[in-house]
Design goal:
The chain is of the alpha/beta class and about 240 residues long. It has one domain: TIM Barrel (Alpha-Beta Barrel). It has eleven helices and twelve strands. About 45% of the residues are buried.
């Protein structure tokens, strides 16, 4: 199982939002590259970078900074936030990004998503961001009428790398993970799932590790690493156990 550190960018700084609320932002540093190098040195096998300003504005804001971070490390980098056009997607993939994360655009146009996954097989991660039972869009500001399990079923035939399932109510809260919606998602999805939202300590990693055989590829964690409630080396040790 992968433990994937998260770097969320806002105004060129490393931040975390509380439950995806832009008015509840906590800044952790102004040198994102420093964190990327640190996480790699600790043993992380993959890095998760989100352009929060991009997600909100619907266009990439931190493109050059993200590429600069990715080029400074050797591990794969997955990037999301404001990727709504193929040109943006191509730019990232041609500049060292391993996978791009699509959210709003994937939900708004399943046909476009099908075309993109045919063109770029296994280079796309779809982020299914859930509030209650519904999928949220536009940087989590709006909630659609789409049930997350129905949407996951629609994705089953596509050539995705993985799906990120984010439980918004838990994200950035350090309240611990909630397994019910994750287990339901694992039952209906043909794709590996990366879980995000609420990972706060080593016990959460142990509980998630038990779901690896059900199709859980990994877990994304941010605030717990920055605030010290989760030690990355310890988490990776448990995640790597066979």
């Amino acid at each position: 199982m992968l433990v994937i550190p998260a770097i969320d960018l806002r105004n060129n700084k490393v931040v975390r939002l509380f439950q995806g609320k832009y008015d509840q932002t906590k800044v952790y540093g102004d040198n994102p590259k420093h964190y990327a190098l640190f996480f790699e040195k600790q043993g992380a096998k993959r890095l998760h970078i989100i352009d929060l300003d991009g997600a909100k504005e619907g266009r990439p804001v931190h493109k050059e900074l993200i590429v600069d971070i990715a080029k400074s490390i050797k591990i794969p980098v997955q990037v999301g936030g404001g990727i709504r056009e193929e040109d943006t997607l191509k730019f990232y993939l041609q500049n060292g990004i391993s996978q791009v994360i699509l959210g709003t655009k994937a939900i708004e146009s399943i046909n476009w998503l099908k075309e993109i996954t045919e063109k770029y097989p296994h280079k796309i991660i779809v982020s299914v961001d859930v509030r209650g039972e519904k999928v949220a869009v536009s940087g989590w500001i709006k909630v659609s009428k789409i049930n997350y399990l129905d949407f996951l079923k629609q994705l089953n035939s596509l050539k995705l790398f993985a799906i990120i399932l984010t439980l918004i109510e838990r994200d950035g809260t350090q309240q611990g993970i909630e397994l019910e919606r994750l287990k339901n998602a694992l039952k209906v999805s043909n794709h590996p799932i990366i879980m995000a939202g609420g990972v706060s300590n080593i016990e959460d990693i142990k509980r998630l590790k038990l779901l690896e055989k059900e199709g859980l590829l990994g877990a994304i964690t941010g605030r717990a690493l920055y605030e010290g409630s989760l030690n990355l080396k310890d988490a990776l040790k448990i995640a790597d156990e066979s």
